[in-house]
Specification:
Blueprint: E1 3-9, E2 19-20, E3 23-24, H1 25-40, E4 46-50, H2 60-69, E5 74-81, E6 91-94, H3 99-118, E7 123-127, H4 139-146, E8 151-158, H5 162-168, H6 173-188, E9 192-193, E10 198-199, E11 205-206, E12 223-235, E13 238-248, E14 254-260, E15 271-272, E16 279-285, E17 292-299, E18 304-306, E19 310-311, H7 317-320, H8 324-331, H9 335-383, H10 390-428, H11 441-449, H12 457-464, E20 495-500, E21 504-509, E22 524-527, E23 530-533, E24 542-548, H13 557-562, E25 567-575, E26 582-584, H14 588-597, E27 601-607, H15 613-627, E28 636-639, H16 655-671, E29 676-681, H17 682-688, E30 698-702, E31 716-725, E32 728-738
Parallel strand pairs: 1-4, 1-5, 5-8, 6-7, 11-21, 24-25, 25-27, 27-28, 28-29, 29-30, 30-31
Antiparallel strand pairs: 2-3, 6-8, 9-10, 12-13, 13-16, 14-15, 14-17, 17-18, 17-19, 20-21, 22-23, 24-32, 25-26, 31-32
Helix pairs in contact: 1-6, 2-4, 3-6, 9-10, 15-16
Length: 742
């Protein structure tokens, strides 16, 4: 069956899109769409359509409706970008914000951006954007989603950015971009081309978990933004200083940085942050004498965070006043250490000033008040000598002195406290450096035992041969890892490759806590047209079976039994995915009686369209009613397959809801005394369901390869949907049931 691709060149008619420096976006989009179509038509099993081939006026709704009319597998909206300040550059892809379309189009967007990155464009990431109603901002995505069509919007690059525009101005650049786009499409859908000599059928795609809710944009700024001094050098009349800028981004990806030499009063151009790195090295030239250097880091949504400030004073009096011995020692140091010492002295100096001056003032005021008090005491003693009031007066004077000394002591304490803080600030905040010793052997051993990463600032200098100027040694650099959109939907460092019968080869996150199988698929053999699993000696450790419904028509069960089939999974019934009505398979009663009469072991499956746990229990009760009076030796299975190309009542179920529905059905079936089981393919098991919550339920796994590569435990394997079996005229699904342990 051919894949149907709909290309949607953005804008058209009176809507020109961007117009800048000779670029007219509607024409660029139209050209790229036509060239993609030409390239894709070199592949087999693909049909390509263009929504607006005449580049005229066409609403977003009309574009989506056209895609629906040709039963499109995907709609790809093609665009070029421009920013208000003409500063930004790079490529980005916008995808639906919810459901399986979000996860699936995210995978598609990854491949588009890989191809565009190969052309030299910065990867800004796969992103979402919401409107004020909390739904997709981009109308073409919103309209396509409403019609059940997966879609994405590709912004190839910025026509107003110097670097990006330089590429676009090359002859044949749009044709090159079209070939890249066509290649991305071919990889995603596993296309082959005999004329081009390529076969992408085994291309492995990233697969992302289906999100539980709407995935909005990243509204948080990068974290842990730190600026470090590395080294400086003089050359050709100007001073060049090298800096290391470090940042962390957990929800999207780092894209840009800029720096300022005057504490943010003015900024440099935007520079690209190296993809997948947690730090960059950059040089600043022509630093002013009292430079205050800071930097900003931005993610793909242009959320920014500013670093600390490094204050520089190229010649500081505190250094010049050092004694000869100390000055000689400093001359032997790299410049960075001299600056460090200078700013330590500067911090200490300010701390002493703030501490000492108020303290001296307080003591002086205290001394003056003390003299006045003594004078008053002498006068009162002379005038009222031997007076009965003398004791009272002396008591009041003594009390006044106590009232004076209390605030004075508190004031001096506060001055000392502020001074200590400023002294510490001079050592740490103004320069953000200390002269820590290199990591000791004991520290290295302890770090390795704890599994900590070795890539610190010190390691960078050891690799490059530059002097070591360490910052806070507790702030370790993490190993560089690519940032993949939102943390909830990321493909992490621990991944597995699986094969999905609908999506092809997928790279999925490893599932911790889920039992793995130990099957050796080299022991799969074939006898009489059926697959079996054997031990090392060739003894068969499995059973051969079929799964059938009314669509297989009349079955000769005796002939089927004689061919080697020992079990049959019969469809008991289904719930209408639109109506919600429970219905029995038309051939169930006939099949269950005839198969049992031949000694074929019977199991059943039910196609579920439950939207909550209550309906799941209702389905289980319905199935149990159908099984009364029959000998059911094989599992009772719930099948929750997704419905494509049509609206279904289950379309908006979240992974948690689906998992709960399965648990409710299987729990109820277990109460009736049957063995419950789940039917699913690799993508549904690893990216949709919470498999770790279903560990007590066996799996019927669908995979149509010669030898499956699925790593987790399963009891039954459906290995083809196009099988042939004596006694059944129509094509039939064939299965292996594994006996014993996984």
């Amino acid at each position: 069956m051919a894949i149907k691709i709909v290309l949607d060149p953005g804008h058209g008619g009176e809507n020109h899109g961007l117009e800048y420096d000779g670029f007219l976006e509607k024409e660029m989009n139209h050209t790229v769409a036509g060239e993609i179509k030409k390239e894709l038509e070199k592949y087999e099993e693909v049909e390509v359509y263009i929504t607006n081939p005449e580049c005229g006026d066409m609403s977003l709704k009309q574009r989506a409706e056209y895609a629906k009319s040709v039963e499109a597998d995907v709609l790809i909206s093609l665009h070029f970008n421009m920013s208000d300040a003409h500063r930004m550059f790079g490529s980005e892809v916008w995808v639906p914000s919810a459901g399986e379309n979000h996860a699936w189009m995210h995978s598609f967007g990854d491949i588009f951006l890989e191809e565009l990155s190969a052309k030299g464009f910065m990867n800004k990431g796969v992103k979402t954007r919401l409107n004020g109603k909390g739904t997709d901002y981009y109308g073409i995505i919103r309209e396509s989603t409403a019609l059940g069509i997966p879609s994405l919007l590709v912004e190839h690059c910025y026509a107003d950015a110097q670097a990006d525009a330089a590429y676009l101005k090359k002859e044949g650049s749009l044709q090159e971009l079209a070939v890249s786009d066509a290649t991305a499409i071919a990889k995603f859908y596993g296309l082959r081309s005999e004329s081009l000599g390529v076969d992408y059928s085994t291309y492995v795609k990233n697969a992302y978990p289906v999100p539980e809710s709407v995935m909005g944009p990243d509204e948080t700024a990068p974290e842990d933004v730190q600026l470090y001094y590395v080294s400086d050098a003089n050359g050709e009349g100007e001073k060049t200083v090298t800096f290391l800028l470090q940042a962390r981004e957990t929800q999207s990806r780092l894209c840009y940085y800029e720096y300022s030499l005057d504490d943010g009063a003015s900024w440099s151009d935007l520079y690209a942050w190296e993809d997948g790195k947690d730090r960059v090295i950059f040089e600043a030239k022509q630093l002013p004498e009292d430079a205050r250097v800071t930097a900003k880091v931005y993610n793909g949504y242009f959320e920014g965070a500013q670093s600390n400030v490094l204050a520089f004073q190229l010649t500081h009096p505190a250094v010049e006043e050092e004694g000869e011995a100390e000055q000689d020692r400093m001359e032997e140091m790299p410049t960075g250490e001299i600056l460090t010492q200078a700013y330590r002295l500067k911090g200490i100096g300010w701390g002493i000033v703030v501490c000492a001056v108020p303290a001296v003032v307080i003591l002086l005021v205290l001394y003056i008040r003390h003299l006045k008090t003594k004078k008053r005491e002498r006068r009162q003693a002379f005038l009222q000598a031997f007076s009965d009031r003398e004791n009272g007066i002396q008591a009041r004077l003594h009390k006044r002195k106590k009232q004076l000394w209390g605030p004075a002591v508190m004031g001096i304490f506060l001055c000392v406290l502020v001074g200590v803080i400023l002294i510490h600030a001079g050592d740490e905040l103004l320069y953000h450096k200390d002269l820590s010793q290199p990591e000791t052997a004991e520290e290295t051993s302890k770090r390795k035992e704890n599994g900590e990463e070795p890539e610190t600032v010190q390691a960078f200098h050891e690799q490059t041969g530059t002097p070591v100027y360490q910052g806070n040694r507790q702030f370790e650099m993490s190993q560089a890892q690519a940032q993949m959109y939102l943390e909830q939907t990321s493909v992490g460092p621990d991944t597995e490759t699986v094969y999905d019968i609908q999506r092809g080869y997928l790279r999925v996150n490893s599932l911790s806590g889920v039992e793995r199988n130990s099957y050796d698929m080299e022991r799969i053999t074939e006898q009489n047209g059926y697959k079996y699993y054997t031990d090392e000696a060739g003894n068969i450790l499995s059973e051969a079976g079929v799964d059938v419904s009314q669509f297989q028509g009349d079955i000769d069960w005796e002939m089927l039994k004689q061919s080697g089939i020992s079990f049959a999974m019969l469809r008991a019934g289904f719930r209408g995915y639109g109506s919600g009505k429970l219905m029995k398979d038309e051939k169930f009663e006939e099949n269950v009686k005839a198969a049992s009469a031949q000694g074929i072991k019977i199991g059943v499956y039910f196609f579920s369209a439950a939207v909550d746990e209550e309906e799941a229990v209702e389905e289980a009760d319905y199935v149990a009613g159908l099984l009364q009076g029959h000998d059911i030796q094989m599992p009772v299975v719930i099948d929750t397959e997704a419905i494509y190309y049509d609206d279904a009542r289950t379309d908006d179920l979240t992974p948690s809801q689906l998992t709960a529905i399965i648990r409710a059905f299987c729990g109820r079936i277990r109460e009736y005394g049957y063995t419950p089981m789940i039917y699913a393919n690799a993508k549904r098991l690893t990216c949709v369901l919470h498999l770790e919550e279903l560990s007590d339920i066996e799996v019927w796994y669908a995979d149509y390869q010669e030898k499956p590569i699925y790593p987790y435990a399963y009891r039954m394997w459906q290995y083809t949907e196009h099988g042939n079996a004596p006694g059944i005229e129509a094509e039939v699904d064939l299965n292996v049931y594994f006996r014993g342990n996984y």
